[in-house]
Specification:
With about 80 residues, the chain is an all-alpha fold. It has one domain: Non-ribosomal Peptide Synthetase Peptidyl Carrier Protein, Chain A (Orthogonal Bundle). It contains three helices and no strands.
């Protein structure tokens, strides 16, 4: 089973988004939908609407944190 970090990195690399400084390249709204679907499939989660904001997808760390919030509610 992949860690949240491995999932985030794999999806970011799949879409060519990973910048050298660890941030993610900006994407258009259609690509963002593809990224969300890829993350949901890879992590076996459903990303709730309140997590679909720019801050969530600014870096690998922010995606990892979001995956943690979804898979470990109440933390």
């Amino acid at each position: 089973m992949q860690t949240h970090h491995e999932i985030a990195r794999t999806v970011a690399e799949e879409f060519g988004l990973l910048e050298p400084n660890g941030t993610l390249a900006q994407v258009d709204s259609l690509t963002m939908i593809d990224i969300v679907v890829a993350l949901e499939d890879a992590a076996n989660v459903k990303i709730p609407a309140h997590e679909l904001r720019a801050e969530t997808f600014m870096s690998l760390d922010s995606i990892v944190a979001m995956l943690g919030r979804i898979q470990e509610p109440g933390r």
